[in-house]
Amino acid sequence: MITDLALSELLGSNQKYVERIREMAAGGSRSFLFDVEDLAELGGFDVVREAKADPTLFLGYLKKAVLTRLMVEEPELAEVVGAEWGRVRDRLVGKGEREVNYLIPIYPRVVASEVTHESVSSLLSAAPNTLVCFRGVVVAASPPRREVVVPVFRCLRCGAESVGERVDFSVISPSTCGERVDGDTRCGGRLLVSAEESVCAITVQLKVQDVFDVAADSQQPHEVTVSAPEEVVRRLSQGDRVLVTGILRVSSLLRYSSASLFVYVEALSVERDAKDYRDLNLTEEDKKAVVAASKQPDIKQRLIASIAPAIRGREEVKEGILLALFGAPAEVNPDGTVTRGDIHILMVGDPGVGKSQMLLSVSKLVPRGVYVSGPRSSGVGLTAAVLKDETTGRFMIHAGSAVLANGGVLIVDELDKMSKDDRGALHEVLEQQTVTVAKAGIYTQLPARCTMIAAANPKMGSFNPNMSLAENIDLPTTILSRFDLIYILMDEIVPKSDEEVARFVLKRGQEKAPAYPPEFVRKYIAFAKNITPALAAEAEELLTAFYVQVRQKCAAAGDAAVKVGVRQLEAAKRLSLAHARLRFSSVVEKVDVEAALRLMNHFLEKEGFLTELSQLEVGKTSGELKSEERAYEVLKNMFTLAATAGAEGIPEEDYVLRCREEGIEERYVRKLLEAWKRKGVVMEPKNGKIRPV
Ligand SMILES: [Zn+2]
Fold first, then answer.
1. Is residue 580 part of a domain?
2. What residues form DSSP beta bridges with 134?
3. Cα gap 380→687, rounded to integer Å
4. Distances in Å between the alpha carbon of 555 and those of 600, 606, 616?
5. In which element (H, E) is residue 263 found?
6. CATH number (domain holding residue 190)
7. CA of 191 to the centre of ligand 1 (A)
8. What is this structure's pTM?
9. What are phi and psi of 671, to 5 degrees?
10. pLDDT (tens digit, 9 = 90+) per residue, 306-365?
11. What is the CATH number of the domain that holds 385?
12. In a domain, 565, yes or no
């Protein structure tokens, strides 16, 4: 049997609690950690079960016991708390002890060591008013608000006081003043809540959702409203994975006069459940296995092969993604600012080159991966939204995918199709790694420290090699320049490779794959994430040389070259650090920088992107690009004609003529056709005649 006396004895005899209560009092707090399993000291597990079955009663006794202990330890505080409670007690005539004790303004953070409900959805079938403990992720939170717990009303006519009732999230008031004024006549005056006399508490409301497995789950995850005293949810933010212990309440107020009941949790504790890379709980065996694997000469190749094993080739893309998963440690600069260690990657390419498949495969390799697809990321989107909650009437800040991915990887498909708001916030997400909310009188900044691996489609359906990157994708260069690596994936039609592709597809599954299973890759990365490699002198020299080289290459851009140079240098450094982590090396050596630079040069040189970056950095928008774009359109239309004209095609001069009619200069047409011939998009079957392949 639990009584306040027994509990008070437990708190006084268990040294842990003596100290915790002392600390609480010294810190001016009204909250301390209490492990419900410790109740076993009072008489075995039956007592624990009893508390879990009727937590309201247990909590009332616990609060009363704390008050008793405070009288010994900290009489002054006990007096303040006692006086506050006294006001409540005096007004609650006719209420039972359990309700009255429960209102003592002390908020023990009660934790249970066992999770009772594996998912938020399973809470639906839990018994009302019992103790539940479940895992989830905070998707929305309200700012702290002063809330009426026991409403006291005052009559506007005669000044009499009456006590109302709080039911779930509403306050129920008597309709009019019931004070007798003359014999049987009642006053009947209007009543107003008295903020001064009502019993209030500062509370926070959260929405907690199932931690969903991005790859497996296509359904909308379940969520539950959690209401808690501010004391027990401090230092939490949206995107945090939490362990909630609380009392399951089933609202007696019917929603929209329908028959469905509203379930919520009155939280006793909301603790951070830091289950990210670092807390993947690697066993000694796991550690031995990954360390052994790291010593294999082909470890990098095997890890690369473990990314999207169903997609053939694209090794350089996979390597970039792999390094992004390892990431680099964030660096705190002398002025207190932080240089991000997260590596952002963008793939731009024709439809059907396996971008989405690649992204889905990556999402299986990260414990904290959030997958979104541009047009489908409706509602909250990438950043955050302030929405009014229908049930509680409070404004809540709902976290977008970038916030939910904090500390993990944000995987975005169809980045080009994002909403305008999200696009505007991309900068902040990629560079400062925060999301700023300033809506409905709420101003706050949420952390969004995540790696972004994204894919985008070309604006015109397929990638046009003769247009700039920014012209190809519907994204400004200032955003593009925040990606450490950009890959352009084209579906080049070469018959020989078609044959190869067919052969590969047919053979798939028969070959012995050198790839590791996703769980192993996760563990490997988790282990490596604890390594903070230092730069060797040789590595530093190589990076410096790279910086000088980049600056020289875009020297024409003047001042902008400095900006571009520094950004590329930071990217190269991050990739080098990640590569050292891949080798489980605490030193960044030549081999790491070389690998990083090879990846960087792959896109910087091949795509001529560096010049473009520096040009656009100085704000040069070119009319030239416009002309090329129009030439492209005209030529594309002519190809349809050429295809019907037969195998020979149309004379090159005809293309030039047609474009001239459209006011497009000859040199653009020639340049475009030349490039297409080189890339095998068009062919020249007979002298001077051209047709698409
Ligand atoms: Zn009255």
1. no
2. 117, 244
3. 58
4. 19, 18, 13
5. strand 263-272
6. 2.40.50.140
7. 8
8. 0.72
9. -60, -45
10. 888 877 778 888 899 999 999 999 888 888 778 889 999 999 887 777 888 888 888 888
11. 3.40.50.300
12. no
